[in-house]
Specification:
By secondary structure, the chain is an alpha/beta fold. The chain contains ten helices and twelve strands. The protein starts with 5 loop residues before the first strand and ends with a helix.
C-alpha cells in the first residue's frame, strides 16, 4: 500500500510511547519512541505524545509515506467509542481524549482505538508468531499484564473494547490488592515490577526484571522461583481463557517475555499441569515473533481493517 498511503500507528504503554508509519504488508517504515513521562499532569504527558507523533510525520515523505488512517493502541481501560483512555499505569490520563488529541496533529482522517495487548495479538496473528490462527489470545507481560483475543482474523474487544484482560483475572482471591481494585490479579504476580517486588521481599538486591532473568538463566534459585510463580499465575489466566473461548494459540510477548524459555518453559509445564480438559490442553504457546513492534503492527492492521469496513 505504499502508493495508497500508510497507517499511523501509536502504541501507548506504561514504559514507552511509540509511533510508526506501517504499510499494508506490516512493514514498519519509520518509527519514533520516547519514555512515558512520569507525571501526574495530563497535559505534560499529552505534549510528549503529540510531540512524538508530530516529529514522525514531519520526517515522513509526504507522497510515499503519508498516513491515510490513524490507529492508537493503548494500555487500558479504554473507551473506543469515545476515543478515550484511562491507563492504570499512566495516572495522569483519566478519560484522556487520545483520538481527538492525535487528530490535532494528523488532521482529519479515519481513526481507531484498541487495547495495546489486543493490538499486539492482531499483529502476531497477521504476520507474527501465529499467522492465520483462527482463535488466539495474545498476552503481553511487561510493566503490566495485558491480553487480547483475535477470532477469525478480527480483533475482539467486546462491547467496551476491554475483552481479554487476562492480567486482571484472579490468580489468588486472597492475594495482594491490585490497582484495579481486585485482589490477587495475574498482573500482581506476573508483571515485571511484581516479580521484582516479590524477589526483593525475599532478600534479592536487584531492581530490574532483566537482572532477574539473567540470574534465572544462571540457575539462581530465587530468580527461578520468581519466574515459576509468574508462570503459574499466567497459566491460571490462560487456562480459564482457553476453557471459555476454545483457543488454538497463545502468543506471549512484552519485555518480560524476552526472557524466552526462562518464562515459557515453566509456563508450558504449568499449563500442562492445570489444563484438564482435552480442548484446553491442545493450546499451543508461542513467543512473540514481532517483539516490541507487535502493538504498532497490529494497530496498523486494525486501521486498515477500519478503512476496508468503511
Amino acid at each position: 500500500m505504499r502508493s495508497g498511503g500508510t497507517a499511523l500507528a501509536v502504541d501507548i504503554g506504561g514504559t514507552k510511547l511509540a509511533a510508526a508509519l506501517v504499510d499494508s504488508g506490516g512493514r514498519v517504515l519509520r518509527r519514533n519512541e520516547v519514555p512515558t513521562p512520569k507525571t501526574d499532569v495530563a497535559d505534560e504527558a499529552g505534549d510528549a505524545l503529540l510531540g512524538l507523533v508530530g516529529s514522525l510525520l514531519a520526517d515522513a515523505d509526504a507522497d510515499a509515506d503519508r498516513p491515510v488512517v490513524a490507529a492508537v493502541a493503548s494500555a487500558g481501560p479504554l473507551d473506543p467509542r469515545q476515543g478515550t483512555i484511562s491507563p492504570v499505569n499512566i495516572p495522569a490520563w483519566r478519560g484522556y481524549p487520545v483520538l481527538e488529541q492525535v487528530g490535532k496533529v494528523t488532521g482529519p482522517m479515519p481513526s481507531v482505538l484498541l487495547g495495546d495487548a489486543l493490538a499486539a495479538a492482531v499483529g502476531e496473528q497477521w504476520c507474527g508468531a501465529a499467522p492465520g490462527s483462527g482463535s488466539m489470545l495474545g498476552v503481553v507481560v511487561s510493566t503490566g499484564v495485558g491480553g487480547g483475543f483475535v477470532f477469525d482474523g478480527r480483533p475482539f474487544g467486546g462491547p467496551t473494547g476491554n475483552a481479554g484482560h487476562v492480567g486482571h483475572m484472579s490468580a489468588d482471591p486472597l492475594g495482594q490488592l491490585c490497582p484495579c481494585g481486585a485482589r490477587g490479579c495475574v498482573e500482581m504476580l506476573a508483571s515485571g515490577p511484581s516479580m521484582v517486588r516479590w524477589a526483593r521481599g525475599m532478600g534479592w538486591p536487584g531492581r530490574e526484571a532483566r537482572q532477574l532473568a539473567d540470574e534465572a538463566r544462571a540457575g539462581r534459585p530465587l530468580a527461578l522461583a520468581a519466574f515459576a510463580q509468574a508462570a503459574d499465575a499466567l497459566a491460571l489466566g490462560i487456562v480459564a481463557a482457553a476453557a471459555l473461548c476454545d483457543l488454538d494459540d497463545v502468543v506471549v510477548g512484552g519485555g518480560v517475555a524476552q526472557a524466552g524459555e526462562i518464562l515459557l518453559g515453566p509456563l508450558r509445564e504449568r499449563l500442562s499441569a492445570r489444563a484438564g480438559l482435552a480442548f484446553v490442553r491442545r493450546v499451543k504457546v508461542h513467543q512473540s515473533a514481532l517483539g516490541n513492534s507487535a502493538g504498532l503492527i497490529g494497530a496498523a492492521r486494525a486501521g486498515f481493517q477500519r478503512l476496508a469496513d468503511a
